[in-house]
Amino acid sequence: MNRPEIISLARLRFSYTTSGPPVLKDLSLKIPAGAVTAILGPNGSGKTTLLFILLGMLSPQSGEVIIDGKDQKGLPRSMLSRLMGLVPEEEHIPFDFSILEYVLLGRAPHLGLLEQPKEMDYQVAHEALDRSGLSALADRPIPSLSGGERQLAKVARALAQKPRVLLFDEPTAHLDLNNKGRVLDMIRSMADDGVAVVLTTHDPNAAAVVADHVVLLRAGQTVATGPADVVLSSENLTQTYGLPVEVTSVRGRPVVLPW
Amino acid sequence: MAENHKIVGRSTTRQFLLLGLMVLAVLTISLFIGRYPEPYWMPPSYLWRDELAQRLVLNLRLPRILTAFIMGMSLGASGAVLQMIFRNPLVSPGFLGVSQGAAFGAAVSIIYLGRSPLMIEASATLFAFSGLIISYLLARNIRYGKWVLRLILAGIATSALFSSGVGVLKYLADPLSELPDIVFWLLGGLWSVTWRDLLYILPVVLVALGVLFLMRWRINLLALRDETAFSLGVAPSRERVLVLVAAVAATAVVVAVAGVVGWVGLIVPHIARLVVGPDTRRALPASMLIGGIFALICDNLARTLLAGEIPLGILTSLAGALLFVWVFLSGHRWVRG
Fold this sequence. Notes:
The structure holds 2 protein chains of 2 kinds. By secondary structure, chain A is of the alpha/beta class. Chain A is built from 9 helices and 12 strands. Chain A has helices at 47-55, 77-83, 99-104, 119-132, 147-160, 177-192, 204-210, 228-231, 234-241, and strands at 5-14, 24-32, 36-40, 62-67, 70-71, 84-87, 165-169, 196-201, 213-218, 221-227, 245-250, 253-258. Chain A has a 6-stranded mixed sheet, sandwiched between helices. Chain A starts with a strand and ends with a strand. The relative contact order of chain A is 0.17. Chain B has one domain (63-330): Orthogonal Bundle (ABC transporter involved in vitamin B12 uptake, BtuC). In chain B, strands 1-2 form a two-stranded antiparallel sheet. In chain B, helix 4 (98-113) packs parallel to helix 6, helix 8 (195-214) runs antiparallel to helix 11 (236-258) and helix 12 runs parallel beside helix 14. Chain B is globular and about 65 Å long. The interface between A and B is large, with 48 and 35 residues.
């Protein structure tokens, strides 16, 4: 796969406390544009930390993050937020915001400090709702949604942001098979539209379904990175998860089974 | 598609038109409510044929009515934005040590600095802001929990500190002269309000509510989790502090003049959200208008119902608590349009 990279990380080192052990150690990797990159690893391997560093919310103690050819540290927050969106694992939305009102919040990077969403922003929000299949529910309060619908609402909010890079933290955790499929389909179609999607997951099968590119992470270091069909091997996954794992193929698709 | 929000837009306009008319009606009617020339009602014709009535309305009732309305607006608005940025529907504007700080300041002034209204107001304002500053510094240094929890813990501690200080001062006060003044101040009221008081609170309230009103859509973003807010280009801590200071400043000056008027800032935002929905674009202005109406009606009752003044804080707590119970018993979570 020879797509140009949109993000590259070099020799990243990060720890939450100055004295504590580093969460990420000498981590380098490249994230291709217009493809789905899955960061796969066991709980506590540093996936979410890595995602928050990409977002710019955490700054590494050393190493550099280059986004679209520019050093992340030099990018103003307003520009960063037009470039990159986040779908967090959990989103606590207080009070009974309607889905439309919530999705409109995604327009914030395109509006000034004192501006209100305008007709055009409503249009973008409605398009995002259409794509997520939530148009019919636009006026429903968020707390009345099912887990799957809520996940789709988060995706719609991030879509309304029109980012070129979209980060997902555990997008398929807690979802049933059907909703998992809907979310993964949306991720696929965004990547096909040219958005670089980066997702974290602890579920190798979700990565196998949707990812073009896989980063295997264990204890803050990469075990392997590269095209999904190469990286997702029995040996690599066994090493990543520390227990015997076998990758077989069902109807041409890799299926990962712990042994 | 775009039809949807236009329908919401139309019903919102209608709701605000209705609220605006209610404001005008309550403001106008309030001018004629009182205990002159006889209890409860003054026929409007007195305004052009009775000189005493003219002076009474212009110098006593009008400043008091406007102050009550502005007080309600400020408390309603502060409550609405604080509940939003703390993602907690039980937060009220005085909670960061502000109400208790003001009470302490007023008591200090009554005992040691003199009982002139100007002195009491200045001291109450000073200590109200000290309450905020102490809470904030404390919260910054607490090594436990996230910032919402830290600020709430710091607010509880600061309030307790000041309220024990008030207790000490009450114990030290002269039971015949100073103690009744302190107790009466603590119950809250606007009986001494003049144009001067109104001019004292107006600049701070105008700036603070102006900032909040202009930021009203963005305040929604401050209710999101830090990482989401950050990803949307918000500087969560910086913008929350700005909103917090604006909301608390309005509360501090209002409390310094009116005393501890409880429950307005807690209940009004709930009613506003029930009527116009939770989006701060609408919930904030609605909280201002409903807060103004609520406070003004309570103050009208406070000055009219009995021959003597009923402390306003008692009435707002009574009405507020009853409304609160009603709102939560009625159980409709989604009233709109």
